[in-house]
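Our consortium's second objective concerns turning raw sequence data into structural hypotheses that experimental partners can test. To show how far this objective has progressed, the report includes one record in full. It was chosen at random from the queue rather than selected for favorable results. The single chain below, 189 residues long, was entered without modification.
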Amino acid sequence: MDILADKSALRRQYRQSRNAYVGALPQQDMTLSFSAVPSPIKNLFQKGKTIAAYIPIGSEADPAHLVGYAANMGCSTALPYVTSHSSPMRFLSWRPGDPLHDGPFALKQPDSNAASVVPDIIIVPLVAFDRHLNRLGQGAGHYDRAISLLEEAYTIGLAWSVQEAAALPADPWDMPLDAILTEKEWISR
């Protein structure tokens, strides 16, 4: 099996696992998940830093508590802005409570007139991850391309523990993360 077909099969497998896991979680557990901010993130989210996150789609882990914490700590916050499959992803200024607009791929994103920012920290969605901090994304490469251009940005994958793989295939253009936060643990280099 070639690496592209292998990644497609893994995406299907881990989406199904994630959907089943999240679907079985009691509402109280869903509400509390990712609400306790671990000390490594508290150390990173310093006043004046720009933190980029995302609005979850479906059963993706929700970074809302982390974004709220960042805003309360005096950080600027941002969301990705995508226009097409091939266009580069940008990060636009956004604060919790600001309006969101429909974008491609079922994304909710800031107004196109919001200011472009360069994030210091990027909270990244994912389909699967491994202990080498490899990330399997949706397959369009938006985050890999953005992260490759933002070499100084610290990247944190946000995932449910059920999304952990023993090992993931990695192409040369796949960008490993600096850390991963699940509802159970903090994994970093």
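The partners drew two points from this record. The CA atoms of residues 5 and 11 lie 10 Å apart. The longest strand covers residues 76-81. Both points have been shared with the crystallography group to help prioritize constructs.
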